[in-house]
C-alpha cells in the first residue's frame, strides 16, 4: 500500500505517520508538505528512514498530479489550521484549504485513486453551553471563521466530486486534538510551554468556551479505521466525549505542573469566538468499532505535559515569534 500523506510534517499528520510506520510496516509512506511555519522536519525525525518527504504545496497542480499517480491512497491533512491566523490574514487559508483540496480532487479523479479528507467539527459552527445537542453527520454547515469556512468549502468540494464524478473519497470531522508535536500557537501547548517558561497562561475572554478534546493518537486510530472499513462517499465524526471549558483545562495543566490553579491571566477575547463544540461519534463507534484509548482528559494531558517538558529543543525555536504575534494582538 502506497500512502501519500499531505501535511504530514504538521501536528496530526506527523503523529499519523508515526502510527502508520509503527503499526503498518507494509505501508510505504510519502509526505507532501510545504513546510510552512507549522510544518517541521524534526517531527518526522524518529521515522525519517522509513518515510520520503517531498517539500511542495498541495496547490501545485503538476506536482500533485505526479505524486497522486504514484500512490494508492491520499490522506489530506495539509491545511492552514489556526483560527487566530485566519483572522489576521485569510488569504493562505483560501489558497491551501480550498485551492489545494481542489487540486487533490482533480488528481484523484484523473488517476482513480482513493482520498481521505481530514476535516474539523468547526464546519458546524458552535453550540450554546446548555444545549443538550451534539454535532452529528447530519448537522448543517454553519462555519464562523475564515479558517472554518475554508474547511467547510473544502468538505463541500469533496462531496461534490463524489456525487458528480464518482471519486472514491471519505471525510472525517474531528474535534480539538492535543498531544505531542502540536505547534505552540495552539491553546494547550501555548499554556504548557508558558508555564514551563515561567510565564502565566493566557485565557481568552472569561474562559467559558468549551472544546471536545481528543488525544491525537485516538484521532489517528479512527482515521485508520475509516481507511480500513469506512464506506466510500461517507462522512464520519470523530470525538472522544472530552468536553471541557478552557478554565478547567488551564487549571488541570497548572495542577499537573505543580502551580497554583489561579496562576493565569485573562486576556482579550478572539473575535467571533465559537462558544462550544461537541461531537456525537456514534456512527464511528457502531459502524467501525472504534473506541478511544485515552478515556480520561487528565491522563492524556499529563502525558502531553511530560512530552513538552522532555522536548524543549523541538518547541523552543518557535516560542518567541509565536508570543510576539500574540502580543501584537494584545493576547
Ligand atoms: P498543522 O497546522 O499543525 O499542520 C498543517 C501542515 O500542513 C503543516 O505541516 C504545514 O506545513 C502543511 N501545509 C500547509 N499548507 C500546505 C500546502 N499548501 N501544501 C502542503 N502542505 C501544507 O495542522 P494540524 O493541527 O495537524 O491539522 C491537520 C488537519 O487536521 C487540518 O486539515 C485541520 O483542519 C484538521 N483538524 C485539526 C484539528 C486540531 O485540533 N488540530 C482538529 C480537527 C481537524
Ligand atoms: O475543533 C477543531 C479545531 O480545533 C481545529 O479545526 C483547529 O485546527 C484547531 O486549531 C482547533 O481550533 P480552536 O480555535 O478551538 O483551537 P485553539 O487551540 O486555537 O483554541 C482552543 C480554545 O482555547 C479556544 O476556545 C480559544 C482558547 N484559547 C486559545 C489560545 C491560543 C485561549 O483561551 N488562550 C489562548 O492562548
TrEMBL record:
Cofactors named for this entry: NAD(+)
UniProt record similarity statement: Belongs to the NAD(P)-dependent epimerase/dehydratase family. dTDP-glucose dehydratase subfamily.
The alphabetical list of record keywords is: Lyase, NAD
Looking at the record, the residues that make up the NAD(P)-binding domain are 4-295
Q: Which GO terms describe its molecular function?
A: dTDP-glucose 4,6-dehydratase activity
| Classification lineage | Bacteria, Bacillati, Actinomycetota, Actinomycetes, Mycobacteriales
EC number, UniProt record: 4.2.1.46
Source organism of this protein record: Rhodococcus antarcticus
What name does the UniProt record give this protein?
A: dTDP-glucose 4,6-dehydratase
* PANTHER family given in the database record: DTDP-D-GLUCOSE 4,6-DEHYDRATASE-RELATED
Q: Which reaction does it catalyse?
A: dTDP-alpha-D-glucose = dTDP-4-dehydro-6-deoxy-alpha-D-glucose + H2O
| InterPro entries noted in UniProt | dTDP_Gluc_deHydtase (IPR005888), NAD(P)-bd_dom (IPR016040), NAD(P)-bd_dom_sf (IPR036291)
UniProt keyword Plastid present: no
Amino acid at each position: 500500500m502506497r500512502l501519500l500523506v499531505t501535511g504530514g510534517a504538521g501536528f496530526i499528520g506527523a503523529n499519523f505517520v508515526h502510527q502508520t510506520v509503527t503499526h503498518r510496516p507494509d505501508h510505504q509512506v510519502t509526505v507532501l508538505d510545504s513546510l510552512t511555519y507549522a510544518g517541521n522536519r524534526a517531527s518526522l525525525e524518529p521515522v525519517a528512514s522509513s518515510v520520503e518527504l517531498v517539500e511542495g504545496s498541495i496547490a501545485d497542480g503538476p506536482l500533485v498530479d505526479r505524486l497522486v499517480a504514484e500512490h494508492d491512497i491520499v490522506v489530506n491533512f495539509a491545511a492552514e489550521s489556526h483560527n487566530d491566523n485566519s483572522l489576521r490574514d485569510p488569504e493562505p487559508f483560501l489558497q491551501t484549504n480550498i485551492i489545494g483540496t481542489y487540486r487533490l480532487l482533480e488528481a484523484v479523479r484523473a488517476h482513480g485513486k482513493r482520498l481521505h479528507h481530514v476535516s474539523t467539527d468547526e464546519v458546524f459552527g458552535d453550540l450554546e453551553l446548555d444545549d443538550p445537542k451534539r454535532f452529528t453527520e447530519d448537522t448543517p454547515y454553519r462555519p464562523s471563521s475564515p479558517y472554518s469556512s475554508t474547511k467547510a468549502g473544502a468538505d463541500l468540494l469533496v462531496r461534490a466530486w463524489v456525487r458528480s464524478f464518482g471519486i472514491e473519497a471519505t471525510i472525517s470531522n474531528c474535534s480539538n486534538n492535543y498531544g505531542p508535536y502540536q505547534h505552540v500557537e495552539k491553546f494547550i501547548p501555548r499554556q504548557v510551554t508558558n508555564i514551563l517558561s515561567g510565564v502565566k497562561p493566557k485565557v481568552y475572554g472569561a474562559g467559558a468556551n468549551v472544546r471536545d478534546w481528543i488525544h491525537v493518537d485516538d484521532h489517528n486510530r479512527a482515521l485508520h479505521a475509516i481507511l480500513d472499513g469506512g464506506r466510500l462517499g461517507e462522512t464520519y465524526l470523530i470525538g472522544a466525549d472530552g468536553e471541557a471549558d478552557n478554565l478547567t483545562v488551564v487549571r488541570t495543566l497548572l495542577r499537573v505542573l505543580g502551580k497554583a490553579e489561579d496562576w493565569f491571566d485573562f486576556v482579550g477575547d478572539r473575535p467571533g469566538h465559537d462558544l462550544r463544540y461537541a461531537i456525537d461519534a456514534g456512527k464511528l463507534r457502531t459502524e467501525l468499532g472504534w473506541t478511544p484509548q485515552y478515556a480520561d482528559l487528565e491522563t492524556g494531558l499529563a502525558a502531553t505535559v511530560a512530552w513538552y517538558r522532555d522536548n524543549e529543543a523541538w518547541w523552543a525555536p518557535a516560542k518567541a515569534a509565536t508570543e510576539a504575534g500574540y502580543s501584537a494582538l494584545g493576547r
